[in-house]
Amino acid sequence: MASLFDLYNYLGFHNPYYTEVGQQMISSEFEKIIEPVNSRTLDFTAVVQILSAGYAFGDRTLIQEVKKTPWMARPGVKKGDWEYFDLPNHQENLIEQEEAALRFYELLKKNLAAI
Fold first, then answer.
1. Which residues lie below 8 Å from residue 47, measured CB to CB, with a gap of 6+?
2. Which superkingdom heads the taxonomic lineage of this protein's source (predicted)?
């Protein structure tokens, strides 16, 4: 499970799913999480969010018993606890578009080289 959260503090991290029905389970595969959930309830709020915005907000999924792990968080020591990563302080720096593109490109190269 630790490898699921290696990049949890990346802004583009794909949050795994979890359920606390029975024993807490966390997985990046929705099918594995939904399997042990016997009673499944459609989350109508998530349906409306998906129809209006194209995605469900926060930790919602279409099934109330299945959630997405919190953004910028990983599982804590105790069941149900989350350890949150502090967002970096960008000090409201304003830079030119070209400089931002160059920095972004360099960061992409660095991250791709690490894979």
1. 62
2. Bacteria
Considering the domain boundaries, does residue 94 fall inside one? no
Domain span at residue 26 reads: 2-88
114 occurs within a structural domain: no
How, if at all, do strands 73-75 and 67-68 pair? unpaired
Could you give the number of structural domains in the chain?
1
Asked if residues 27 and 33 have their Cβ atoms less than 8 Å apart, the reply is yes
Q: Which residues pair with 6 in a beta bridge?
A: none
Number of H-type helices and E-type strands within the chain = 3, 5
Q: 88: which 2 tokens?
A: 């970096």
Tell me, rounded to whole angstroms, the distance of Cα 84 from its chain centroid. 12
pLDDT tens digits, residue range 5-57?
776 666 667 788 888 877 678 888 888 888 888 889 999 999 999 999 999 99
